[in-house]
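Subgroup meeting minutes
Present: P.N., E.W., G.H.
Scribe: E.W.

1. P.N. recapped why we're keeping a running log of single-chain structure predictions: easier to compare across weeks, and new members can see raw inputs and outputs side by side.
2. G.H. added today's entry (277 aa).
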Amino acid sequence: MFHHCLLCRYYPELIACIKSWLTHNIADWKDIQIVPRGKYLGFFLGRDGARETYSLPCKKYLERVEDIGSASAPSLVSVLRYNERAATVFSFVSQVIPVHDPPSLAALEQRGVHKVLKLPPNSMSRKLMHSLEPFHCKSPAAIISMCRASMYRLARREAVFLRSLHEEILEFWGDSLDVLGFCKKTVPNGGISDQPIVEALLDALHLRGDFAPYQNIVCTDPNHSWIADVTLPPPIPLSMGRFRTVHIKFSGSLRFVQTSLRSSLKSWSSLWGVSSV
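Output recorded in log:
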């Protein structure tokens, strides 16, 4: 089970040192698994965790695309089945783990849409395949946008908890933070290339990082102005000395599926070079 594992950088010398220390200090743990990553609640945590997390949904996506494409259904039925059965396979993992390689996922999506519509490869651009309404009743769902919407939805619902957890993590690290982390108030990644889960969710909440392109839409489109209540930062000084007032309201419950997942999020967000889970 994952909670009986140690996550660490997978070097033979390091593993030997850890096993030796455990043998002398915690004999009951001498046979514990020491792995670079482990699976917990459907997510891989540790080194290359995001890549491993998305590998299974990608495989399932291709299987469902093949199933839909092999049927003799008309294009509208195929698109509806695609949106319901294929595009949604990423909805669970994308709530917590950001898309680790958007270009590769976009290429996979383009391949899948052409397969479903029984078209020659690359006969449509990626923009066109999501804009079929002028000559078709329904367009295929945009997978990357759906993934980011799933993460934003979770981040908004758990906004209060995420902020308090973020502060608790930074307080725990204290002076151990590096200069950049201390200035930006970011959670250390422990030498792992993947972004800490708490940081990814806060980026979604505040429309930073991969979500930054959506800031202009939020600021200019009245239909999306409700997002500003939670996501936009405190007042920002303008060039004329005035301030743009942004009201921040915290909403959503502090419950994340189960009470036990609170401690899980804390574990996910503080992945060290060696961490006990």
